[in-house]
Amino acid sequence: MADDVGSFGPANWRARHLRHRSEAWARSIVELAREGQLPLDDGDALSIIATIETWMAKSLVPLSLPWSY
User: Fold this and answer.
1) What are the tens digits of pLDDT across the range 6-59?
2) Whole-angstrom distance, CA of residue 54 vs CA of residue 40
3) Around Cβ 26, how many Cβ atoms within 10 Å?
4) Which of 4, 26, 56, 63 has the fewest other C-beta atoms within 10 Å?
């Protein structure tokens, strides 16, 4: 997918299609997590991504993150 991004023609079109398909898949996983249909573990990447809108609206620094700024 990433190898053909800088090319021209069909190879680039295929790479763009694969990127859009991957982004749609990731978007669907995050939406399922936000709807509560997927279990979330505190501190994992999906949990942070799925809840980022919530904590950004309330606070710039979430208290549950395992690292500090």
Assistant:
1) 777 888 888 888 888 988 898 899 889 888 898 888 888 888 888 876 555 554
2) 15
3) 12
4) 63
Residue 1: both structure tokens together: 């997918």
Nearest one of 48, 50, 49 to 63, comparing CA atoms: 48
How far lies 32's CA from each of 28, 36, 40, 55, 66, in Å? Answer: 6, 6, 11, 18, 24
CA distances from 49 to 11, 15, 34 (A): 31, 25, 9
- Predicted TM-score of the model (pTM): 0.62
What's CA 65's distance to the chain center, in Å? 17
